Amino acid sequence: MTGLMTPSPTSFTPINASVSFRVYTDGACSGNPGPGGWAAVITVGDTVCGEIGGFEPQTTNNRMEIRAAIEALRILQKLPQGSIQILTDSKYLLGGAESWIKNWKRKGWKTAQGSSVLNRDLWESLDALMSSFEKRLSWSYIPGHSGLFGNTRADEIAVAFSKGKALTLEEFHLNLNGAKASFLS
C-alpha cells in the first residue's frame, strides 16, 4: 500500500497560456530499503504553484526518486501546456531519463551487462509520461543540499513522508495574466 497527498484536480480549468514550469523532485528512504517518501515542488518562475508527496512502507531511495518525477508529470498533464524543466539531485534519475532508458528499451530492458533493469516498472511509467510531453521536457542536475529553495523543500517533504511525519503541502494554484485556476475542490 502506498500513500499520496495531493489536492484533487477536479475543479481545474486549463488556461490558454504558455507557461514555463520548474519541477524540483526528491526521494528519501529511512533505511535503504525501508520506509520511503517522495516529493515534487512545482513552480512557475519563482512562485510555487503546488507541492505533492507520498509514502511507501518498504522501498528504496532510487524508487522514490523515480516516483517523484512520475507523480509530478502526472500532475503536469493536467496543467496548461508549456515547457517543463525537472531539476533533480539524483544522478540515477537523470541518467536513466536522459540516456539509459533508450538503450534499455532497445535491449529488451537489459543493462549493458545483460542483467534485468532494476525498477523497470517505474522506468516504463516514466518513459510513457515523458513521451507525452514531446520536446517540452528537459532535465537538469542540481547538487543536493545546496540551499536552492525548491530542492530543499522537496527534500523536507520526502524526508517527512519517509519518517511518517505530518506536514502541510502547498495546494495547487496558478495565477496567469490575472486569470486564476485552482486544484482546490
Question: Could you explain how this protein is built, in words?
Answer:
- The protein is built from four helices and eight strands, in the order ββββαβααβαββ.
- With 185 residues, the chain is α/β, with parallel strands linked by helices.
- The chain has one domain: Nucleotidyltransferase, domain 5 (2-Layer Sandwich).
- The strands form two sheets. A six-stranded mixed sheet has the order 1-4-3-2-5-6, with helices on both faces. It has a two-stranded antiparallel sheet with strand order 7-8.
- α1 runs parallel beside α3.
- The two termini are 25 Å apart.
Can you lay out the helices and strands and say which pair or pack?
Elements: E1 3-5, E2 19-29, E3 34-44, E4 47-59, H1 61-76, E5 82-88, H2 91-106, H3 120-132, E6 137-141, H4 149-162, E7 173-176, E8 179-182
Parallel strand pairs: 2-5, 5-6
Antiparallel strand pairs: 1-4, 2-3, 3-4, 7-8
Helix pairs in contact: 1-3
